[in-house]
Amino acid sequence: MNAITMANYLCNEYGLDTISTGATIAFAMECYQKGILTDDQTGGIPLEFGNADLVVDLVEMIGKRQGVGDLLAEGSMRMAERLGNDSGHFAMHVKGLELPAYDPRAVKITGLGYVTANRGEII
After folding, report:
1. Residue 100 above 90 pLDDT?
2. Are 95 and 111 in contact (CB under 8 A)?
3. In three state form, how does the secondary structure of 45-114 look?
4. pLDDT category of residue 106 using cuts at 50, 70 and 90
5. pLDDT given at position 109
6. Angstrom distance (rounded) from CA 2 to CA 113
7. Of the chain's two ends, which shows fewer C-beta atoms within 10 Å, N or C?
């Protein structure tokens, strides 16, 4: 709980969207787990699920665009473009905006909102 609170605080301090930041970190961890993102690219930092302190550190690195944070600061869509190796398969986004951690299928109109929203990139 402390790590979540601190990560949220840092997102607010750096002006980062919490949904995009969390989803991008999860995407990076998935790519690391699959061997798409390597130790060379992370600066030797093992991006493994379950390390709450690492998430806090990554938020700070994203905010300052330091180390692997510079790559993560681009978001999951652009990160997938740079990584290649079918990493786009794991990048959950709509028009470049990461998806929230709730299931939009519960409210059918949410999908229409994603498609017609004036936010995000037209791909």
Report:
1. no
2. no
3. CCCCCCCHHHHHHHHHHHHHCCCHHHHHCCHHHHHHHHHCCCHHHHCCEECCEECCCCCHHHCCHHHHHH
4. low
5. 75
6. 33
7. N
